[in-house]
Design brief:
185 residues; alpha/beta; 19% strand; globular
């Protein structure tokens, strides 16, 4: 109470002293209502493709997720290269939530999503990790792999490279299985 008195003397206000304001997203009672705006148009950066129209075409996997800029791009590039070696077409994008990335997957016509989450520690190598979730286009989680950083490393780049190489090896084990189908000859 003594601190509250000193704070009020200094001109501070408390949340309980303020009048309630309605939240524009949730309304006055805090309930989420259905959006009144029409559904957004398809993302113009993604070309729509219907796999049924091209039966002999290689399967398409969408790679998206989040992570720190230069390291995330390196991880996605390495995953794309591993899929290309197995003749699996990949497209990539960026999105913060799995639901956003799943919408982009459906809009692109891909059969599955590799959702990548990277956390890179600039100071402690073993705090670095990369997680990949494979999700079908309908939202069903098929599998998940995670790789953590080594106990010690010479640099952040070497940590990311080490983690990515081990993760790519784990992802290659899933090629030809649900989520990463190989093209039919």
């Amino acid at each position: 109470e003594e601190w509250a008195g000193l704070a009020q003397e200094a001109g501070a206000t408390f949340l309980s002293d303020r009048p309630a304001r309605p939240n524009p997203r949730t309304g006055a009672l805090g309930q989420i209502s259905a959006p009144s705006a029409p559904r957004k148009q398809a993302d113009p950066r993604i070309k729509k493709q219907n796999p049924a129209q091209n039966p002999g075409q290689a399967p398409v996997v969408f790679i998206a997720g989040s992570g720190p800029a230069p390291h995330y791009a390196y991880i996605v590039d390495e995953l794309s290269a591993a899929l290309a070696d197995a003749k699996i077409t990949s497209r990539s994008g960026e999105g913060s939530s799995r639901n956003t990335c799943l919408e982009m997957t459906q809009e692109s016509g891909a059969q599955s999503l590799l959702y990548v989450v990277a956390s890179v520690s600039e100071r402690v190598a073993f705090e670095t990790f990369v997680k990949v979730q494979c999700v079908s286009a309908d939202g069903t989680k098929l599998w998940e792999e995670e790789q953590k950083g080594p106990f010690m490393s010479a640099s952040v780049q070497s940590t990311v490279k080490s983690v990515t190489e081990k993760l790519v090896k784990k992802v290659r084990d899933h090629i030809g299985k649900p989520g990463l189908p190989v093209p039919k000859p």
